[in-house]
């Protein structure tokens, strides 16, 4: 495998409230993508119904903590977190809770690769 350029960035947008989608697809790829060096920078965005699952499911929270510990950046949509009443829980988890529309647009325009689950 060749060295990845420094600007090699992946954004995984996780929207599904299905824990199987989180555990066996979105998280698996995002975590391995960073650990295995497939991408130099990986950011997981918790957006929509996934916010409630991330706040309330112990297994999902543990998986997110593992990703954070290994260097995956975790953002959560503040508007969604407010709608589900989970801002404090997501912040306590270690997610950067912010209004993501503009920063996400900037990432796309800046050349980030994006996957949505």
Task: Walk me through the structure.
- The chain is of the alpha/beta class and 117 residues long.
- The chain has one domain: DsrEFH-like (Hypothetical Protein Ychn, Chain: A, 3-Layer(aba) Sandwich).
- 50% of the residues lie in helices and 21% in strands.
- It has helices at 19-35, 50-56, 58-69, 78-84, 87-93, 101-109, and strands at 9-14, 41-46, 73-77, 96-98, 113-116.
- It has a five-stranded parallel β-sheet, sandwiched between helices.
- The model has no long low-confidence stretch (mean pLDDT 94).
- InterPro entries: DsrEFH-like (IPR027396), Sulphur_relay_DsrE/F-like (IPR003787).
- It holds the Pfam family DsrE.
Domains, number: 1
Instruction: State mean pLDDT (0 to 100 scale).
Output: 94
Give the DSSP E fraction (strand runs of 2 or more residues). Answer: 15-25%
CATH topology: Hypothetical Protein Ychn, Chain: A
CATH architecture: 3-Layer(aba) Sandwich
So, the CATH homologous superfamily? Answer: DsrEFH-like
Question: Number of DSSP strands?
Answer: 5
Amino-to-carboxy terminus distance: 26 Å
Output the structural class: alpha/beta
Spatial strand sequence of the major β-sheet: 4-3-2-1-5
Pfam families: DsrE
InterPro entries: DsrEFH-like, Sulphur_relay_DsrE/F-like
Summarize the structure.
The chain is an alpha/beta fold and 117 residues long. It contains six helices and five strands.
């Amino acid at each position: 495998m060749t060295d990845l350029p420094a600007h090699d960035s992946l954004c995984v947008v996780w929207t599904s409230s299905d824990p199987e989608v989180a555990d066996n697809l979105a998280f698996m790829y995002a975590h391995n993508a960073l650990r295995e060096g497939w991408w130099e920078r990986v950011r997981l965005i918790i957006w929509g119904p996934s916010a409630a699952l991330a706040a309330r499911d112990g297994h999902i929270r543990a998986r997110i903590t593992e990703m954070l510990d290994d260097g995956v950046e975790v953002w959560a949509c503040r508007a969604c977190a407010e709608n589900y009443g989970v801002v404090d829980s997501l912040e306590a988890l270690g997610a950067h809770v912010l209004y993501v529309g503009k920063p996400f647009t900037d990432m796309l325009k800046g050349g980030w690769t994006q996957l949505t689950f």
